[in-house]
Amino acid sequence: MGRFIVIEGLDGSGKSSQIELLKQSLESRGEKVHVTHEPTSYETGAYLNRILAGSDDKDIHLQAALFLADRIEHVTNPEFGIKKYLDDGYTVICDRYYYSSLAYQGTDPECDYEWVRNMNMGCSKLLKPDLCIFLDVKPEVCKDRIDSGRDNIELYEQSAAQLSGIRDGFMTVLDDLKNNCGHNIVIIDGGRDIDVISKEILSYV
């Protein structure tokens, strides 16, 4: 069975670049690698992407529930699910997982952290990652990257202050899951040279 690796971070933290570099490194060693992301390209994922784009203003509880539904499909789909790839011996690298749900929806003042946590931690269909790496980049830097690299600013990318609050949420979530749920979590300084970051990620993997 393959290994399940999750890369987390704020929007603009460089996740996509580091995932591609990790994929290349592992494949050069002869490993089979499958890269995936959340929200997915399934129907629930498309709905969530419309919400994130700001075209659908939906309740925070509905967002959390939709992410869980999308995640269950993501893991269990018999043809393209994470579990299928792991069973076939692939290393699966996922851009975001339930850590994001807890940080974005769970720590929202209008939502209930324990509810979001219990939904995800208590779902027997979901898989516990072998490793979660969080790329920690200053919110101001992330916001500058977002503004310079995108035409459309999404729901959770409106300001550096908003990103700072999300980072605080991530720190709470990662501490909780590492210390209370036994998750293998590493926080990496994502503000350094891209190759230095890549080598550190590979060392943990």
Polypeptide structure, described:
With 205 residues, this protein is of the alpha/beta class. The protein has one domain (4-204): Rossmann fold (3-Layer(aba) Sandwich). Helix content is 53%, strand content 13%. The protein has nine helices and five strands, in the order βαβαααβααβααβα. The protein has helices at 15-28, 43-52, 60-76, 82-87, 98-106, 113-121, 139-149, 160-180, 194-204; strands spanning 4-9, 33-37, 91-95, 131-136, 185-189. The chain has a five-stranded parallel beta sheet, sandwiched between helices. α3 (60-76) packs antiparallel against α5 and α5 runs antiparallel to α6 (113-121).
Structural class: alpha/beta
Number of distinct helices: 9
Net shape: globular
Helical amount = 40-55%
Uncertain segments of ≥5 residues (pLDDT<50)?
Answer: none
Strand order of the largest sheet: 2-3-1-4-5
Integer-rounded radius of gyration: 16 Å
Order of helices and strands: EHEHHHEHHEHHEH
Q: What about the largest sheet?
A: 5 strands, parallel
Index terms:
Rossmann fold; globular; single chain; alpha/beta; 205 residues
Quick overview:
The chain contains 9 helices and 5 strands.
How does the SSE layout of this entry go?
Layout: E1 4-9, H1 15-28, E2 33-37, H2 43-52, H3 60-76, H4 82-87, E3 91-95, H5 98-106, H6 113-121, E4 131-136, H7 139-149, H8 160-180, E5 185-189, H9 194-204
Helix pairs in contact: 1-9, 2-3, 3-5, 5-6, 5-8, 7-8
